Amino acid sequence: MRLVCMLVIILSLVRVEAVPSFLTDGKNKTSTSIESKNKELDDLSILRQMINQETIIRLALVKNFHALVNDVIVLKQSLAKSEWKISELQRAVTSLQKENRELKKSSSSSDSRIMEEEKRQFYFNKTNSVLNDVKIEVRYLSVTLLDFKERTETENESRDKKYEELQRHFNSSIADLYVKNSQIKQDVTSQTALIHGLEDSQSKTKRALLENLNRTTSNFETKFQSFKNEQLKLSSAVASLELANMNMSKSNCENSRNHAFSAGISLGKSVWTGGTLVFPVVIYSEGTGYNPSTGIFTAPTAGTYVFYVSVQSAHQKLIYLDIVLNGSAKVRAMAWYNSGSSVNMIQTGTNLVILHLQTGDKVWVRRGGGDGYYSDGYHITTFSGFKLF
Q1: What does 282-310 look like in DSSP terms, one character per residue?
Q2: Residue 194 phi/psi, 5° resolution?
């Protein structure tokens, strides 16, 4: 519709433009007027075509709209039906849920009965299987007998005879089955009696085993407790002995007034850059204090002590040794050499110091410089000390 209105406006504007041109210009040619008329006719034909197309489109839209309305109505009806069916299904589901709950309640009460019936039914499964086989055979024979009736009348007598024989056989088999069933029942009763006897004997053995186990555990607990008590007594005795030994060693250390040692080295080292020089060979020792494995002297009692060190340098080497008290160097023994490699000689350095020590103070020999010393089996390099007073 908008397109049609726009075309009408364009045509009116064209006409308006043509009128003033006709009024102002009186000398227009006839050819231009003919062309304008032809254009107007073409525009009118185009407009008519467009109007016809619009009417056709409107009619198609109306048809489609009516079809859509009908489809919507059908859908609404189907939705109403489906909702009705859903409501019915929901009702059925609720009723089924109620029935299910009732069945669950009934099943919970009947579970105990079913268990008892299963126990009884277990013993009759064999007889039922045999009876089912016999029933199947009877059905098969009855079907064959009916077939024989349809075929000939003459076979009726023989069939009756066979049927009677089968009945006799069936009766005899049923009697046998009853006898077997009674025997099975008797066997079951005997087996149940045996089971009860076994359960009683098992319960008795369990009681006896529990009693023996309790007795053994009680005996073990008493023995374990007595062992613990003895262990505590032994540990207390050991502790008292250790304390007495410590007291005795302490009293011996305190009572001993004389402390002296002299230690040496039986083998030199031309290249040595260690810290503490250990003198492992004890030449003389009285009292306590010197440890040959560490080379450290620990004062057992307070007093005034004298320490002496003697060192010989290695070949064409120099060595400085310090007497150290608790990490602090006190004196130094120096075997100094500075003649190069032309002179074949070694040097000896010694020093002595008097120190006042407290109980537990430590004294040792430490390298102050150099890198080699000499000693042999005669213990040329030595470390000595003694308590003065």
Answers
A1: EEEEESS-EETTTTEEE-SS-EEEEEEEE
A2: -60, -40
